Amino acid sequence: MFSKILIANRGEIACRVMKTCRRMSIQTVAVYSDADRLAPHVKMADEAVHIGPAPSNQSYLLADRIVEACRQTGAQAVHPGYGFLSEKREFQEALAEAGIAFIGPDAHAIFAMGDKIESKKLAKAANVSTVPGHLGVIEDADEAVRVAREIGYPVMIKASAGGGGKGMRLAHDDAEAREGYVSARNEARSSFADDRVFVEKFILSPRHIEIQILADKHGTVLYLGERECSIQRRHQKVIEEAPSPFLTPETRKAMGEQACALARAVGYHSAGTVEFIVDGTTGQFYFLEMNTRLQVEHPVTEMVTGLDLVEWMIRIADGEKLGFTQDEVTLNGWAIEARVCAEDPVRNFLPSTGRLTRYRPPPVGRHVRVDTGVEEGGAISVYYDPMIAKLIAWGETREAATAHLKAALDQYVIHGVSHNIGFLTSVLGRERFAGGVLSTAFIAQEYPDGFCPATVPEADRPALIAVAAVVARKTAEREATISGQFPGHDPVVREDWVVVIGDDHHPVTIRPLGGGYGVTMGDRVVRIESDWRINDPLLRAVLDGRLIAVQVDRAGSGWRLTHNGSQIKALVLSPRGAELQRHMLKKAPPDRSKFLLSPMPGLLVSLAVDTDREVEAGETLAVVEAMKMENVLKAERGGRVVKVHAKPGDSLAVDQIILEFA
Coil, helix or strand for 624? Predict the structure, then answer.
């Protein structure tokens, strides 16, 4: 067995691979860029090697730097994780030439299956059902339009070397095909150093279901069940689960056997994933692509099979045989994974960057797993993917797994950057999700006007009002103990308060009651037990016999309370203070309708207009890039540009002015 492995990656996947290596008593080597000098994966490794500046094309994407790091440290093998060099044939060949093992398939399989165009040709030749499309490389926008017309709209324009939702655009007409071709090529070039794209038919009502395989070097190929990955936005997975609530045992077997046959056709060994698009109405499945690497969502398979996929990748690379048969692969219970990302769902999921001023994942155990690669005080950089962590929950049933995941999301504390936890909770609470009625259009259909933070359900409202009262009471109790009070003028902790939420005023009375507090609201008394202390971001309490978790944050002179995906801002005032607050003037928000603002921190790639230029509604104004994703900014209505505030190449802050209109 290898004694030292280098992980050619960063973030949570590097940390996750290191955990398995540590359990196997294998030493690890981390590589890092300037931006990751103090990252958790660097601290976790036994050794670490600096490989270049922050941009990935100057560090993590340079195969020669990785090979040299192996030489420096004596690493015998490399685990590539996912992304970066994980599906680069040239990387595997460079390692082989240097006598270093690649923990993954050989160069032939990487080329044949990792390349989206070549893998579809091979699958078609092997009589595997494939999506109709044009498998040649599209040379320009005119050809993209011609091919799209031949296939029939809607079509998907996809990067041949793509993955992770990068380099993909859905087009419904000629204009979208032209624009999508340019954007897909640009993203593909930036993310994979390969700008080849192709076009295929977009299946209506599609479900994205993939088969996990394991294959050793002795001819054994097994499938480990499926993962449903249909809930996506921008073609990037958001929530994944195993097994799928849609597949029958017969379909699972058919898909698994096709996946294994495809792997055998190229002599595949290691872990791999064969992705299928499944028609949600007919159940017909079509080969989409094969990922010749570990998938982001692999933990859900691990939790229902009890297998450590990273361990088996290492053992297979070392020449071991698989120690079990297909009949011995069993699926136990249900697992669901949510990708926790630094992004703003209210702003159409645009990436968010900044420092994690507070970061506390939920407690882990039998039902909850957290795969993360960040820590409190660390920064979410503009240079890399915005994923903060993967939160995985297991239960004996799908309903139990969902409940565990929602409870864990309630306890996940992230301050300093925008995040999608409220959105994830909202998705899990949808009737369609509970019923397993999923498709890749789920988010677009369930949130047609975009995501807005959920209003607090009436059933939860009294609980949050009571929590706000407890927070005010405990704050007042603490202030009453501060030294330096005037003798003979000991402060009295008041019992009557008014909880102000928006324009609603809720008079309450709060008194100590049996080791906790009793909060009276009208004719109802809510009993709360809590050991919450000021500055603790999480309040855990037993409320009328029910355990709840509420995030408590300062919000100006009040408090922001977050629970079950809902959020309220509460002012807790004395009755006199509440009366005065009713009569305070409210300032109107500033008028921003005359400006084009950057929706996220990023790089201004191009500007399509200049001063005194008349623009029409829908016209492209600028392109902003962040975390390798291009965002095309268009005019909401016609007007005239009177001032240009930024130029191409500028680094923009969120809401920074780009253009000003008359």
Answer: strand
- Max Cα–Cα distance, the chain, nearest Å: 92
Round to the nearest angstrom and report the end-to-end CA distance of the chain: 69
The token pair at 464 is 């949050």
Owner of token pair 């692999």: 298
Stronger pLDDT, 161 or 583, i.e. the higher one: 161
For residue range 406-439, list pLDDT tens digits in order: 999 999 999 999 999 999 999 999 999 999 999 9
- Measured CA distances, 495 to 472, 473, 506, 534, 582 (Å): 10, 8, 14, 19, 21
Is the pLDDT at 63 greater than 90, yes or no? yes
Mean per-residue pLDDT for 14-18? 98
pTM for the predicted model, two decimal places: 0.82
The 10s digit of each residue's pLDDT in 519-529 is 999 888 989 99
Given the DSSP bridges, would you call strands 657-661 and 595-597 parallel, antiparallel or unpaired? antiparallel
Q: Which two tokens stand for residue 39?
A: 């990252």
Omega within 30 of 0 (cis) for the link into 154: yes
pLDDT for the residue numbered 585 = 56
**What integer pLDDT is reported at residue 115 of this predicted model?**
75
Separation of alpha carbons 548 and 563, rounded Å = 8
Distances in whole angstroms, Cα of residue 521 to Cα of each of 455, 500, 510, 527: 20, 13, 9, 11
Residues 234-253 as b/e (b if ≥16 CB within 10 A, e otherwise) read: ebbbbbbbbbbbbbeeebbe
Question: Which residues carry out catalysis?
Answer: 289
Residue 484 has pLDDT above 60, yes or no: no
Cα–Cα distance for residue pair 546/193, rounded to 1 Å:
53
The long-range contacts involving 575-583, CB below 8 angstroms and separated by at least 24 positions, are: 575/496, 575/497, 575/498, 575/507, 577/498, 578/498, 578/500, 578/505, 581/500, 582/505
Q: What is the full DSSP assignment across 428-479?
A: HTSHHHHTT---TTHHHHH-TT---PBPPPTTTHHHHHHHHHHHHHHHHHHH
3-state secondary structure of 41: helix
Q: Which residue has the tokens 């008394």?
A: 525
Instruction: Confirm if 84 and 315 have CB atoms less than 8 A apart.
Output: no
Question: Which pLDDT score is estimated for 485?
Answer: 58
Which is nearest to 3 in space by CA: 49, 46, 64? Answer: 46
Residue with the two structure tokens 């060949």: 93
CA distance 25 to 35: 29
pLDDT at 253: 96
Q: What is the pLDDT of residue 491?
A: 67
Q: Dig out the tokens for 116 from the structure.
A: 């989206």
The DSSP code sequence of 229-295 is EEEEETTEEEEEEES-SS--HHHHHHHHHHHHHHHHHTT--EEEEEEEEEETTT--EEEEEEE-S--
pLDDT at 255 over 80: yes
- What is the per-residue pLDDT across 550-602, written as a single tens digit (0 to 9) for each? 999 888 888 989 888 888 889 999 888 888 877 765 666 677 778 999 887 88
Distances (CA, A) of 323 to 315, 316, 320, 622: 10, 11, 9, 55
Instruction: Say which residue the tokens 């503009």 belong to.
Output: 382
* Confidence bin at 490 (pLDDT 50/70/90): low
Question: What are φ and ψ of residue 147, in 5° steps?
Answer: -65, -40
Domains of the chain with bracketed CATH: 4-103 (3.40.50.20), 132-201 (3.30.1490.20), 461-482+491-582 (3.30.700.30), 595-661 (2.40.50.100)
480 pLDDT higher than 80: no
Name beta bridge partners: 551: 538, 562
DSSP 8-state symbol, 54: S
What number is the average pLDDT over the span 241-258? Answer: 96
